[in-house]
Write a structure and sequence with these properties.
Glutaredoxin; 4-stranded mixed sheet; 53% helix
């Protein structure tokens, strides 16, 4: 039996458009003969736009507009997105994702992280809050706790491998899908991704 085509989905919990792309990514597996592989990827917002206190007015306006766009798209879907008040790192949330994935619980974990972070109900850098979500979805948190205490043991190198794979795929932002070697950056490019999968005869 032929294996489903792997579609890579590079994402970040702190990206509103990654959040918007999440459910449509799940839907791809129902509509097409594909398997979506979720790969964490970080964008250094401080490097791209500067830190909040020193950010120039042009970059402030651009970011306000990008969040405005994301919220317009979210309203069409009934999704809540409240712009964060500061820059957050998703690194520990990614570690929680690895722990959940290893126990077959990645999707319920991710759904909760996205929903709560964008409603300002989750401190995404707080390991205790992330461990609570892992417990809520039925995951054993022992490995996650160990990773927080000693990142070098497995979590940090594993995340670095994800970033290296992203570099090999020429990824520069999230959300990015890669299907059959072709890249699609952005939630609003998913229509083109679907057309490609249709042209490949993968529609169920």
């Amino acid at each position: 039996m032929k294996k489903p085509l792997e579609v890579k989905f590079y994402f970040a919990y702190t990206s509103p458009v990654s959040y918007l792309a999440n459910d449509p990514a799940y839907a791809l597996e129902r509509s097409h003969d594909v398997r979506v592989r979720f790969i964490p990827y970080g964008v250094d917002i401080r490097r791209v736009y500067g830190d909040v206190p020193t950010r120039g007015e042009r970059d402030r306006r651009k970011l306000r507009y990008l969040y405005h766009d994301a919220r317009r798209m979210a309203r069409e879907r009934g999704v809540v997105i409240y712009p964060p008040k500061r820059i957050f790192s998703a690194r520990r949330a990614f570690y929680g994702g690895f722990c959940a994935e290893d126990q077959g619980l990645f999707r319920p974990y991710s759904d909760r992280v996205y929903q709560r972070f964008w409603k300002h109900e989750l401190e995404v850098e707080n390991p205790d809050a992330l461990a609570a979500i892992l417990k809520e979805v039925g995951a054993d948190t022992a490995t996650f706790v160990r990773w927080i205490e000693d990142e070098e043991s497995e979590a940090k190198p594993r995340l670095k491998r994800c970033f290296a794979e992203a570099a090999a795929d020429h990824v520069f932002g999230v959300p990015t899908f890669v299907a059959d070697g072709e890249m699609f950056w952005g939630y609003d490019r998913m229509g083109w991704l679907i057309k490609k999968l249709d042209a490949m005869g993968l529609r169920r």
